[in-house]
């Protein structure tokens, strides 16, 4: 049992699970827009997410020498290095325009982590901005990169999906912020810190309702897609409503981050019939 727990912890702490969510959302974009050449972008998103998330999580601690290199952390560092090499390989498989956009998101990640100006905090510590940066990066990497890489037009439907995905990621992050309320620096001014847990849940529920209502604006409205997104919205709302500061770390880091994966898998199964 201890060995299994160590494996699960490595899987989560090494950002493999969150990377799987990014991979799933990118593949989901392929399903929605009937993109056949999605493999390179999906794998770039997967390995790039491992690198980006591990860099964000462990860089500050490493630079301040507050991070003791345990065996697991050494394994995560090795995983991150391998993922960096693989992500660079897939980066150069992308179209030139996609590479430029991908580089811009790299700059945003660096800005999010590193203090570029003397005596200034990084973007991660800019009050209240963290949730928007993260949601923006997820939408950019999992939606716009595959769209641009395949030279698809930026239609109104693309921006509709972008709005829905931004809302979904935003609400999923709200769940993390509720669970991490006791641990987060008060100066971060996360949504629960500013308006309280109850109001945060209300905001999340209203946003998921907007998420569903936006589907009616689609020029290609399909009842099966609406039913699937309704199930997704209800699942997300339930996870939000039952979230609290005393929840296990696996509640968000495993189950909540599994929502995009299940969404993609269900869509794949439906499309196979």
Brief summary:
The protein has helices at 2-13, 16-32, 39-63, 71-91, 96-113, 130-149, 156-179, 191-195, 197-213, 223-241, 249-255, 259-272.
The total of helices stands at 12
Low-confidence stretches: 115-119
Strand content: under 5%
The succession of helices and strands, N to C, reads HHHHHHHHHHHH
User: Could you tell me the mean pLDDT?
Assistant: 86
Distance between the termini: 39 Å
- Helical amount among residues, as a percent range? over 70%
The overall number of domains is 1
Structural class: mainly alpha
* Biggest sheet descriptor: none
Instruction: Estimate the global geometry from the Cα principal axes.
Output: globular
Radius of gyration using CA atoms only: 19 Å
Q: Total strand count, please?
A: 0
Give a verbal description of the structure.
- This protein is mainly α and 273 residues long.
- Helices cover 73% and strands 0% of the residues.
- It is built from 12 helices and no strands.
- It is globular.
- The N and C termini lie far apart (39 Å).
- 32% of the residues are buried.
- The model is unreliable at 115-119 (pLDDT under 50).
């Amino acid at each position: 049992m201890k060995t299994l727990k160590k494996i699960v912890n490595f899987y989560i702490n090494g950002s493999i699970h969150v990377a799987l969510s990014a991979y799933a959302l990118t593949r989901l974009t392929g399903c929605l827009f009937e993109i056949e050449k999605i493999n390179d972008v999906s794998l770039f998103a997967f390995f790039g997410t491992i690198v980006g998330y591990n860099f964000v999580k462990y860089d500050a601690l490493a630079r301040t020498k507050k991070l003791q290199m345990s065996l697991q952390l050494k394994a995560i560092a090795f995983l991150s290095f391998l993922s960096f090499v693989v992500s660079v390989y897939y980066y150069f498989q992308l179209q030139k325009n996609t590479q430029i956009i991908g580089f811009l998101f790299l700059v945003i990640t660096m800005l999010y982590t590193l203090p570029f100006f003397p005596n200034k905090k990084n973007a991660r510590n800019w009050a209240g901005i963290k949730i928007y940066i993260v949601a923006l990066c997820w939408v950019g990497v999992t939606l716009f990169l595959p769209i641009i890489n395949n030279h698809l037009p930026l239609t109104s439907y693309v921006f509709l999906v972008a709005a829905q995905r931004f809302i979904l990621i935003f609400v999923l992050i709200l769940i993390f912020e509720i669970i991490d309320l006791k641990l987060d620096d008060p100066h971060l001014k996360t949504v629960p810190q500013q308006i309280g847990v109850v109001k945060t849940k209300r905001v999340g529920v209203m946003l998921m309702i907007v998420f569903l209502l936006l589907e009616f604006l689609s020029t290609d409205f399909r009842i099966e897609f609406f039913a699937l997104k309704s199930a997704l919205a209800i699942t997300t709302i339930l996870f939000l409503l039952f979230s609290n500061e005393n929840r296990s770390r696996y509640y968000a880091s495993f189950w909540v981050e599994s929502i995009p994966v299940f969404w993609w898998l269900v869509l794949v199964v439906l499309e196979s019939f």
